[in-house]
Design brief:
Shape: globular
Helix content: 25-40%
CATH class of the largest domain: Alpha Beta
Number of strands: 13
Largest sheet: 6 strands, antiparallel
Distance between the termini: 30 Å
Strand content: 15-25%
CATH topology of the largest domain: D-amino Acid Aminotransferase, Chain A, domain 1
Order of helices and strands: EHEHEHHHEHEEHEEEEHEHEEHH
Mean pLDDT: 89
CATH architecture of the largest domain: 2-Layer Sandwich
Length: 311
């Protein structure tokens, strides 16, 4: 089977995408799959360069890759692809929209404001509703790119300016003190929970995510009742946001309450990424994880086609 590993893209996470893509190519089981590197540098690249592949393994992150647009294009071309479908991809990348859905379902998530332009800048609203410190982040970004922690009005203004460099809308989010957890889900089953603690920074920034030794990431065992609460929260998010095949739910645990930070439909698959570590703890090697993602994705795309035909 010819597997096109699609990487690069046009988002702020282009370099992370290359890291994911190269790791996927290195780890793909050559007895089953023939990897075909496919690099996207502009939106129109996809059509025309995916001819001849049997399956698209998505190593893309961010806008035009993780937001449903590439998924929709591949569906139009009749090429099965990895991960969640168009709707889920679009919902999960939009932090404001996904948090609205989580809150409507009664799932705890840090309080937030969403600004769609610099003219909406309102430090008084932040101070009255959220208090300091707050995280300021692009609404449709990832890998902590363009994200900063603001502790006062001056740093808030700087953080807002930086976030608007990366996106047309931004999220100002309440800072929750607690233990950070990441819950990886594969085919609807929760993998071992990984606890995250940055080694040199106060929060899980870009360096902590991608530099070797910059964070302490290890499988943790929670008390039974708390583990059940975290599991239920993660799986509820997965189902609510229509995820399929695999996803990663990032959670901040405070006083026994799991606050959902965000849901990732194409989580990083680099050498330092959290999902492969969680899978390894479950006895699933990296190459086996990729094989399962391909197998489950083919099943999901077949199921989607069957449902569409019946409609």
């Amino acid at each position: 089977m010819k597997v096109g590993v699609i990487m690069g893209g046009v988002s702020s996470e282009r370099e992370v995408s290359f890291m994911t893509g190269m790791q996927m190519i290195a780890q793909l089981d050559r007895s089953k799959y023939e990897p075909v590197p496919i690099v996207i540098s502009k939106r129109e690249d996809l059509v025309g360069i995916v001819e001849g592949i049997d399956f698209a393994l998505l190593a893309l992150h961010g806008v035009y890759g993780e937001d449903g647009t590439v998924q929709g294009t591949l569906e139009t071309l009749g090429i099965p692809y990895s991960g969640s479908g168009v709707l889920s991809s679009s919902l999960c990348l939009d932090k404001d929209l996904s948090k609205r859905l989580l809150r409507a379902e009664g799932i705890p998530t840090p309080d937030w404001l969403c600004w769609t332009g610099p003219d909406e800048y309102a430090p008084e609203e932040v101070e009255e509703r959220l208090g300091y410190p707050v995280f300021v982040k692009p609404n449709r970004g990832g890998s902590s790119i363009g994200m900063q922690l603001a502790a006062d009005r001056h740093s808030l203004r700087m953080a807002v300016r930086e976030a608007f460099r990366w996106d047309r809308s931004i999220v100002v989010e309440q800072h929750i003190e607690g233990d950070e957890l990441t819950c990886s889900i594969l085919n609807g089953e929760l993998l071992p929970v990984v606890g995250v603690r940055p080694a040199h920074s106060g929060w899980f920034n870009y360096q902590a995510k991608y530099e070797e030794g910059a964070a302490d990431e290890r499988v943790i065992v929670l008390p039974a009742e708390l583990e059940a609460r975290v599991r239920d929260t993660a799986l509820t998010c997965y189902r609510l946001l229509k995820c399929s095949v695999y996803a990663r739910i990032d959670i901040m645990l405070q006083d026994g309450i799991p606050y959902v930070l965000e849901v990732n439909t194409l989580p990083g698959m680099t050498a330092t990424s959290l999902l492969p570590k969680s899978a390894q703890a479950a006895g699933i090697s990296f190459d086996r994880l990729l094989s399962l993602i391909i197998e489950y994705s083919l099943q999901e795309r077949k199921r989607e086609r069957t449902v569409t035909c019946h409609e």
